Backbone:
């Protein structure tokens, strides 16, 4: 008598249950399925094995996605039993066409049973099959609509239709399923942007807060409108001419917002955070810099987009220009201002800080400063920060002298140290 195992399954006759078994084996470690043997291991046989063979092969081909047939081999034993050998597939997860890419359609082998896969198991299979490129991975949510996306494309004069989905990277090339890029563009996008307005410089007292949901196109429009409401404008007169001045350059706010959306790591579920107080706006996106890049590289205009397809979509819509130009444009807009933008990077976050141009940068009594300290302060005033290596290059001094000068200036509360080791930098004292 034969017995079922992790890799062997018996079915006395053909039923649609065999599709689940094939899926489970293909999604796990492979196995063998016998049609014509009952649960006790007895060969009961099929009445018309040739007809059943045809029915089985056609059914597996039509009922399962992606195409699993290259991993399935069929043999007829003793003219009464169909043996189906299933190898582990390379394009997981395999699923029932009728159910789609969700737990009710995806099965894995667990002991001697084939059971529904969990959402996390499905995610891991997608990651293993599609790679770590989030935007190109197949989305777990497939019931997507694109009302906001279509409106955005129309507004910017770019064609948008189902025929364009593959070109844009919205559907997976192997099985035509929507990718995570499509999810981001869809009305069902699960990521959000949160904006908080504070009444103090330490961001502890809330004055207002908003969370923007839906397609990233809708989020960008609504968020930009909201932060513009918090961009105060003052008026002055030069003779008879009225001159208006905003707290922030509108173009800088736009570039900072778009940069946060394009470059964030969407494999994490947290929101983009924008903090606003009287002194500055902070744009905080999840995901630090890609390996090999530094904050100095970003300030210099070097860019390696994390979400290449999303960046390409934004480029087509002319929301962004060439990669890396947005940050340079921000610094250009602050070129003759006493306060400067700052970039702060951790392992998991990227923060772009835009200072309020109407708030005068703190002035220092330079009368007691040495020429070297004045040079350092002037450099920070123009660039927003300085490192010990930059001090060495600026002053033509060795590492020990650069460290000593920086420490003295920290003790004198002229500058403040942030970070440790190779990541240490010096910022202006607030």
Residues:
């Amino acid at each position: 008598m034969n017995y079922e195992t992790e890799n062997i399954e018996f079915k006395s006759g053909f039923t649609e249950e065999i599709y689940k078994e094939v899926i489970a084996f293909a999604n796990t470690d492979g196995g063998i399925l016998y049609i014509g043997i009952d649960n006790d291991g007895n060969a009961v046989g099929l009445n018309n094995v040739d007809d059943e063979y045809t029915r089985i092969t056609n059914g597996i081909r039509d009922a399962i996605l992606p195409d699993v047939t290259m991993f399935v081999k069929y043999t007829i034993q003793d003219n009464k039993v169909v043996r189906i050998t299933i190898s582990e597939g390379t394009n997981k997860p395999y699923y029932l066409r009728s159910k789609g890419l969700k737990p009710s359609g995806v099965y894995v082998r667990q002991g001697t049973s084939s059971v529904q896969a969990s959402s996390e198991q499905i995610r891991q299979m997608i990651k293993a099959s599609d790679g770590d490129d989030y935007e190109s991975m197949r989305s777990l949510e497939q019931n997507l609509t694109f009302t906001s996306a279509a409106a955005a494309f129309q507004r910017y004069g770019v064609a948008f239709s189902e025929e364009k989905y593959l070109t844009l990277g919205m559907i997976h090339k192997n099985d035509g399923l929507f990718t995570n890029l499509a999810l981001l563009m869809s009305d069902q996008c699960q990521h959000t942007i949160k904006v908080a307005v504070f009444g103090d410089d330490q961001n502890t007292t809330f004055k207002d807060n908003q969370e923007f949901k839906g397609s990233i196109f809708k989020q960008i429009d609504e968020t930009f409108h909201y932060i513009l409401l918090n961009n105060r404008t003052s008026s002055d007169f030069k003779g008879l001419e009225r001159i208006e001045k905003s707290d922030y350059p509108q173009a800088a706010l736009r570039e900072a917002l778009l940069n946060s959306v394009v470059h964030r790591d969407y494999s994490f579920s947290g929101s983009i955070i924008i903090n606003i107080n009287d002194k500055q706006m902070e744009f905080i996106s999840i995901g630090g810099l890609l390996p090999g890049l530094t904050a100095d590289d970003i300030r210099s205009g070097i860019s390696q987009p994390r979400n290449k397809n999303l960046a390409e979509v934004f480029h087509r819509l002319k929301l962004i220009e060439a990669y890396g130009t947005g940050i340079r444009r921000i610094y250009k807009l602050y070129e003759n201002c006493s306060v400067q933008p700052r970039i702060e990077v951790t392992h998991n976050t990227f923060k772009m800080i835009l200072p309020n141009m109407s708030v005068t940068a703190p002035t220092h009594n330079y009368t007691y400063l040495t020429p070297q300290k004045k040079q350092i302060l002037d450099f920070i005033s123009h660039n927003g920060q300085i490192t010990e290596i930059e001090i060495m290059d600026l002053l033509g001094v060795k590492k020990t002298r650069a460290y000593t000068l920086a420490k003295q200036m920290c003790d004198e509360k002229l500058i403040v140290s942030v970070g440790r080791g190779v990541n240490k930098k010096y910022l202006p004292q607030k």
Q: What stands out?
A: DSSP finds 14 helices and 18 strands in the chain. The radius of gyration is 30 Å. Residues 274 and 283 are 5 Å apart (CA to CA). The longest strand covers residues 206-212.
